[in-house]
Every structure is written in C-alpha cells, then in structure tokens.
Amino acid sequence: MTIHELPTRSPVAGLRRRGLSMVEVLAQSVSALAPSAAVVVVPSIVMARSGAATLPVLVAGTALVVLVGWCLTHFARRMAAVGGVYSYTAKGLGPGGALLAGWALVVGYAGIAVSALVGAVAYLASFLRLDAAGWGLGLLAVAVGALAALTTVRGIQLSARVALTLEVASVAVVVAVLVVLLLAHDGGTGTGAVVVDGPVTPGGVATGVVLAVAAFMGFESAATLGVEARRPLVAVPRAVLWTPVAAGVLFVVAGFAQVVLLRAAPVEILTSDVPVARLADAEGLGALSRLLDAGIAASFFACVTGSVNALARVLFSMSREGVLPAPLGRTHRRFATPAVALAVVLPVVVAVPAVALAAGVRVREVLTASLTFSALGYVLAYALAAAAMPLFLRRIGELTRPALVGGAAAATLSAAVLVVALAGTSWSGSGAVVVVFALAWLPGPVLWLVLRRRAPATLARVGVYDQATAGDLLPGQGVRR
Amino acid sequence: MSGVDRGVTGRQPQAVRSALAVLEEVARAGAGVNAKEVAEALGLPPATTYRLLNLLVGEEYLVRLPDLHGFALGAKVAGLAGGFTPARVPTAARQVLGELRGRVRAGVHLVLVVGASLRCADVDPDLPLASTALVEGHLHASALGHLVLAEADDWRAVVHHPDRLPALTPATPTRAAEVDACLARVRAVGWAGQVGQLHEGVGCLAVPVRGASGLLVAAVAVSSARGVVPTEYLDAARDCAGALAPLLD
C-alpha cells in the first residue's frame, strides 16, 4: 500500500461526519444498555436462580462484560467503524468470522429492540393505569414504534440527546426509590429470605452469570458511531469501556440493595413481575412507584432508539461492502442518517411485538423470549470479537501479552456463558427460542458460504471502516521504502 | 466535550517527550512505518509505543494507513508549520498566472489548499487582495473558502464555531442554511462566486485546481471591485487552473 493509492472519499461517506461530541457518543452506549431498566429487572431474576451467590454472580457478570469492553477498545482506538463489533471481528477473524458475528449482532440488536419496545409498552400502560390487553397494547406498541422512527431518522444527535436525558432521569428515580426503601427498612427478615439466601448450585450460578451479562447488552453500540463521532478514536473506546464500568457499579449496588430489601419481603413480591415497584407499593409509596413506571418506560424507549440506531448502522455497513443490497446503504439527504436501513428495520421491530401483543400473548412471555433470543446473539458476537482481538493485533504487529491473555480469557469465558445459555434455555423448556434464534442467525453463515463461492471479491471488502483518505495526510511527506 | 482530558497531564514530561519523539520518528522514517519499527528505532518499550501512537492518531497528528499497521503524518501537522514556512509556487506556475494577469482587468490570485485550510501563495501585485488574513481565516465569507468547504464532508467540522460565524459585511452568510445553499451551488456548478461577503462592493470567483486523483490542491481566484462576480473571466480562469494542475499536484 503506498500513500498515493489512498482514495479521496471514505467508503462510508454519506453519514454526517465528525459531528457527535463525547457525551453524545456515550449516550448511544448508555441508551442501548438501558441501565435503569436493567438494574431494576435483572437482580431479582438472578436471585431466583443463584440464591445466596447473587452478589458474587452480579460481580462476575460485570467483570466479564468489562473485560469484553476492554478487548473492544483495542479495535476502537485503531479504526473508526460503522459496523461496530461486526467490522472489528472482520479485522481479526476475516470475513467468515465477521459475518457470523455480524449477523449474531443483527439478531441481538433486533431482539433487544423488540424486548425494549414491549417493556416500554408494559410500563407505559402501568404508568397510565391503562387496563388494556391485546389490541390496546398492540396499538400502544405501534405508537411507541412511530415515535422511535421519528427520533432515529431525524438524526442520531437528537435521538442520543433524548435518550441520555431520559436515562439520567430514570436512573435518578431508581436510585431515589431504592434509597427511600433502604431508609424505611427495619432490618427484619421475611419469607423472601428462603430464596435470597437459597442454596447455591453450579447450574444456578452459571445461568445467573448469563442473565447478569444480558443486563449489559448494547454497551458496545457506540462502536457503530465511528464516522459520526467528532474524535472517534478517542471517544468510542472511552464509551465502550466506561459505560459497562459505571453501569456495573450501579448494577452491583442496586443488586445489593435489592438483596437486603427482598430478604425482608414476602416471597410473593420477589417472584412478581415488578418486585421493586411492588416493594414501593408495600411501603405506601404509590407516587414513587408511578414515577418508577415512567422512568423505566423512558429507559426502555431510549433502549429502542439505541438498538435500532446500531442495528441500522450494521446493515448500512454490510450494504456498503456489497454483502447486502446497495439501497440499504443509502443515507437520508437532509438528515444524513441510514434512512433506508432504518425503514427496513423499524417495521419488523415494531410489527413482531405489536402482532404478538395484539394476539394476546402475555407481556412477560414476549419480554423473556426476545431477551433470551437477543442474549444468544450478543454473547456469540462478543465471544467472536474477543477472539478476534489478539489475532488482529498480531496481524498489525502490535500484540502485547496483556492483550493476548485478556482476549483469550474474554473469548473463553464468553463462549462458556453461551454454552450455558444454550443448555439452560433448552432445559428450561424454551427450546423454541433456541430454534428461532438458529433460524434468524442462519443468514449469516449462508451469506458467507454463498459469497465465498459466488463473489469472493465482495467478501474481501468486509470490514470497511472510515479509513484515512488522501485529504487526512500531510501532503508531500516522505514515503518509507 | 466533557471537561478536560486528563490522560496526560503537565506533570508527565517524559510522556510528552516520548510522544514528540514518536512523532519525529514517523516524520523521519516516512509514511508507512509500523509500530514495531518506531519502538525499535526509539528504544521505547513496545506497549508504551503503541499507546503513544494510538494517542497521536486519536488527536489526528498521525494517521493510521488503510493496511492498519502503517503510520503517516496527519494533515493537522500542517497547522503547526503553516504560519511559518513560505508557500512555494514553481516558476512555471507563476508564468501561467502572469499570462492570465496580462489578459484580464481584475486581480488574479493563487491559493494552495492543504486539507481544509488555504494559504494565499501568489497574490496579484497590481490588484492585491485587501486582506489575505481574512481570506485564510474566514472560509465561510469568500469564494475561495466556499470551494474548500464544499470539498469537506461536513463544513461544520472544518470551520471554527459553526454556530457563531462572524458577519464581515451585511451580505456574509452566517446561518447554517445560507452556507449550505452556497455550498450546494458550488458543488452543482464546480466553481464559486460571491459579491460583498468579505468586503463590500468586491466580487470574486474561484475555480478549483485538482490533482490527478481529483484532490483539491489549489484554487485560482479572480477578484474585481466592480460589485459583480467577474463571470466574463470564468473560462480564462478555468483554462489557467487546467494549466496549473500538473505543475502543482
């Protein structure tokens, strides 16, 4: 490669370049992670599986995610990608690994968008005291979906700002509720103690870790803003590392608070759909629990926009490589967003839950199924990306021992979590989700096999990123021979 | 930006020294040098070198080449030297400009373009620009500046304070929509023209000089104090730009 062969235009031109500040990049990761929803929903589910080992399990899950995040920063400091983890994996495992990871990521983002939409609908209905079922919830899903479409097509800047504001407000509400409940706590024990201090089994601990990891899904999505961030090689790695660290602290602290609170509570509250809200109700904090509903609904809505933004950008990237049809790579003329990709993604993400809810499927069932579905995709993508990291560094001659050890550990542990998740999901009688996941993920390997035979040149382009163009270089500098 | 970057503080002189040494080594070795070679040449630990290289790439003083292991100096380095080195224009290019000056009754000027900045390299000695500093500093208010901004993917990322563009005259485009309209016109016709945006009553047109790869390397401007864009010289300016291209690329 000589510097005279540099293109004058980036392969991912068309998005609004270098416009997002550090805070807005961070907002993407935070909104896709939806910390307030995660810290309220996940700990009590973990408790039911892991019993007395709940806190160590939450810490272990957080540590694994932070390790994966640290692996991703090695890519993020070196290339400004639009495909996020998909583009990163391409640089270490080649096009095959990239398509396997990339499609897993597509499945993951789509699944989380569906579950966040359902979550937003459920909490919104609860906030509005709507006693809707079936059609009513379906229509509410369409309305929330339309609002998400508006903010995502209008521009990442707007949707990031809206998302971060909503998220900060809802985290504040969650913290306030937990603090008030802890202050009112009298130190007694209730029937919940049976579960909270329950027996520890290896299987329970493993599924607990899977669930804890699932709480962080989406933290890496800032990696899809490589082109749009102002200083991508600085802002993206920071967002990808510090989002899980900060959310992890919140997660463990909120988990601890819930362990203390639920130990003292009746076991029915622990196993209810919304334990924290029920706790608030039980303490006579009706207004707070209403506020909590609004906060969680907002957090879920932010998560819808965050995941859809990231999903559309992965598809945009694939289209610019020629892996997917060219129209998906078109950007909106005025807003410079991947509008066609968004237009393809949004109807699916809205229709699936809207139809399911309208058909009378219970909110909790849709939520659990889509969450599991998406967890399988994410963890597969994380495992492949972590494995790709040391290979990538070795290829460019910048491998260090900590990177090798960290990458190998993150890949092995993520793969273990994936195996446990697959086994656990199949055992617990939701084998259908695994089948649906396998079918949804199939296009990835199929695309790879077809392209390898039909269009190897296209496959070679996989992993496009915002590479240096002639204009980025100091002109007239010497060239090394 | 969220406050101050505390990655390297003023209390780490050795880190700053090492970073400058890395920058110097890339300049000395030439574009395409890789991280291992830089570490070996400087005797720095590899992990430290990689961190410093990534830091300098993050700040855009270095650029990682598309093979991802080679480094080159970034266009931002020009900003360090831009104010001091004289812009060199080959004699053959000066002759081409001289010919055009003999044929038109207006000022003919040459600017060199580096990245998103321009340097007035050869100003008409008989009908000089009123202020080269204004031309170089306010890209939104001149035909030459519009050419440069039209080249960028997003002009907001190039100018200082895109939301507070100074109005040099009542005609200066200061709102984003006005600048967008100007640049759309430039992209559509391939040249730029304006009247009274920089100095009242002064009109100017600018045509691009492009290298073999299509990169904007320079621009020729024709300015006139008659209060209109001197379009009658458009073809002559284009011919001149065409003749300059092989001399300046």
UniProtKB/TrEMBL annotation, chain A:
Subcellular location(s) per record: Cell membrane
Membrane topology listed for this record: Multi-pass membrane protein
Coiled-coil region: none
Protein name: Amino acid/polyamine/organocation transporter, APC superfamily
Keyword Iron: no
GO CC annotation terms, alphabetical: plasma membrane
Keywords from the UniProt entry: Cell membrane, Membrane, Transmembrane, Transmembrane helix
Annotated transmembrane regions: 25-46, 52-76, 97-126, 132-150, 162-184, 204-227, 239-261, 294-316, 336-359, 371-392, 404-424, 430-451
Superkingdom of the organism of origin: Bacteria
Pfam families named in the record: AA_permease_2
InterPro entries: AA/rel_permease1 (IPR002293), APC_superfamily (IPR050367)
Record bears the keyword Transmembrane helix: yes
GO MF terms held by the record: transmembrane transporter activity
UniProtKB/TrEMBL annotation, chain B:
Source domain of life: Bacteria
Domain IclR-ED: 76-249
Domain HTH iclR-type: 13-75
Alphabetical keyword list: DNA-binding, Transcription, Transcription regulation
Segments passing through the bilayer: none
Family annotation (Pfam families): HTH_IclR, IclR_C
GO molecular function (one): DNA binding
Official protein name in the record: Transcriptional regulator, IclR family
Source organism: Klenkia soli
